[in-house]
Amino acid sequence: RVWSAFLYLxxxxxxxxxxxxxxxxxxxxxxxxxxxxxxxxxQERMAHSEQGHTLKLSNPTLPDYGIDAAFQETDQRxxxxxxxxxxxxxxxxxxxxxxxxxxxxxxxxxxxxxQAKLNPAVGxxxxxxxxVTDRRGYQFSQLYSAYVDPGDILRQFRxxxxxxxxxxxxxxxxxVEAENRLSIQEVLAxxxxxxIASENPGPCSMGVDQGRDLHxxxxxxxxxxxxxxxxxxxxxxxxxxxFKVARCVVDALPETRNARAFAKRFPGRVFLxxxxxxxKGHYAWNENSLVVTCNRTESLDASHKDVTDRSVNLPRxxxxxxxxxxxxxxxxxxxxxxxxxxxxxxVYVKLGEDHFRHAFNYEAMARHFLGKGFFAGADxx
Length: 381
Fold this sequence. Notes:
The chain is an alpha/beta fold and 381 residues long. 27% of the residues lie in helices and 23% in strands. Helix 9 (296-308) crosses helix 11.
C-alpha cells in the first residue's frame, strides 16, 4: 500500500495472477516478452476504471509487433540534438551510422549539417506524427546516453554478427533479418500470367486454415492454382472434387468437429494438422486417425523456403493474391529464450492477419507428400 493506493507486481505468465486484481493504471515492463493473450487479459482488469491509464515499456524486437506496433499508434517522439554551432537539429537514430564520425582518435556525435560535435543532453523531443494527440510515444537509444561511448557503439556495429540485438538493444529499433520475414514484393515476384483457376485435373494439394472464415490454398506442382476465402465447410467438398485434390491438410482447431467430419467425407485424402513443438524431423502422417503432426517452426521454415527458393508460382496479381502476400509478410521468425531454463529456440510470431500463411503451410505439407509420388496416376474423380 502506498498512501491510499495499492501497487501490485504481477508476472505475465500466470493466468490466475493477472485475473486476481482490478487496476486503474497498468505499466507493462518488457511488453515484447508477453503474449498478446496475457496483455488482453491484463487490459480487461481496467474495464471498470474511469482512469484506465496504460504505460508500455520494452526493448523492441520485431517490426509491427509488441512495442513497435504500439509506438506506431502514438505521436512518435524522437530526441533530436541541437547543434550549438549552426542551430541544426539532428536525428541520431534516423541518420545512423552517418551520425557518428571519427574525429582524431575518438568518435563523436556529429551535426548532420556542419559536422560539429553534439551534446546528447541538448535537444528536444519532436513528434513525427504531431496530429496524434491522444497517445504519446518516446523512442530511446543508447546514442543519446551520456554514459555510453559512441565509439563503442560504432565499433560494435562494424563487428557484430548479431544485428538483431544491436538494433534492438543499442539503437532501440525493431529489426528482423531479411531471411526471417518474407517481403510483400518477394511474394508478388512469384506471380505469373494465369488467373485464379476454378478447376484442375489434378492431382492437387490443398491447405485450409480455420478462423472466422476458411482460407484455402490449392496447388499443383509447381503452381498455386487457387486462392480463396470461404464461409461454409461444405464449400470445401466442391473444391476437393473440382481440383481432384489428392491430399488436403486442414487446421484441426478450433472447429475440430467440423474438420473431422470433413476428413471423414474424404477418407485418406484429408488430414487434420496439430503442431507439436517437441517433434523433430519429418511430418508424421497417421492414416488411421486422419491426423498429421509436425514441428511448427520446422514446417513454416520449409514453406518459407519454397518462396525464397522460388520453387512455387502464383496466379497473376489480383486482390486475393495481394492479400496472400500480406499474410505471408505478417509472420516473422525470432529467437525466443525461456526465462527459467535459459534454453533458446526460434519461433514464428504473428504480426497481423496470417490465415493464408498457415493455409499455404498446410498446402506445402500436402504438396511435399505428393512429391514423393504416392499418388502418381491415381483417379480421384
